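Backbone-to-sequence.
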């Protein structure tokens, strides 16, 4: 499997706009349009590719540690992680997570920790993160619109 993680670039954009999750899964990440609206100087878009096809997306929020009490001040955050519905169930989330720490080390080397929250009703996502070395901190984040979320953390330094 030739899976790569890359910062979003112009060459990805047309395929990126075709990505979606099912309606039922939108409660966890929203829509592609909504995610792109979150991009800013502080919130960076990244894509997951298999060969030359864009199959997934996520945001890195460099202000995460400032925004959330459960995170260390200097930590970054993972938001909006998804694999397009056509490509789910084929091991791509797990394969992304296997490379994730190394990827973060090359692009966010001045940071050491990344956090995320994952809905308690979303076990496949939690499984994928555990496969990448994330630990469940045992805390629950109750601020999400779709119900309680597990707080997970990866130290990648
Ligand atoms: C959660 C998500 C990223 C998983 O992506 P994926 O590429 O389908 O996941 P994988 O195929 O790598 O599987 C990951 C784990 O979930 C399990 N899994 C995934 N889909 C499954 C299904 N339909 N039935 C049973 N198990 C499933 C796999 O067996 C695997 O577990 P394992 O590591 O113990 O073997 C994807 O379903 C998704 O984008 N969901 C919508 C958005 C979302 O919820 N994002 C997370 C926000 S925190």
């Amino acid at each position: 499997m030739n899976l790569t993680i890359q910062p979003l670039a112009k060459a990805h954009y047309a395929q990126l706009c075709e990505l979606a999750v099912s309606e039922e899964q939108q409660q966890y990440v929203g829509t592609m349009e909504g995610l792109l609206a979150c991009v800013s100087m502080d919130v960076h878009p990244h894509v997951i590719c298999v060969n030359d096809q864009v199959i997934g997306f996520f945001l890195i929020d460099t202000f995460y540690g400032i925004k959330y009490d459960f995170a260390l001040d200097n930590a970054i955050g993972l938001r909006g992680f998804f694999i397009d519905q056509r490509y789910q169930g084929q091991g791509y989330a797990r394969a992304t997570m296997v490379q994730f720490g190394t990827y973060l080390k090359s692009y966010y080397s001045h940071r050491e920790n990344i956090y995320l929250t994952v809905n308690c009703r979303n076990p496949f996502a939690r499984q994928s993160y555990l496969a990448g070395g994330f630990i469940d901190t045992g805390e629950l984040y109750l601020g999400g619109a779709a119900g309680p979320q597990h707080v997970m953390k990866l130290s990648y330094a």
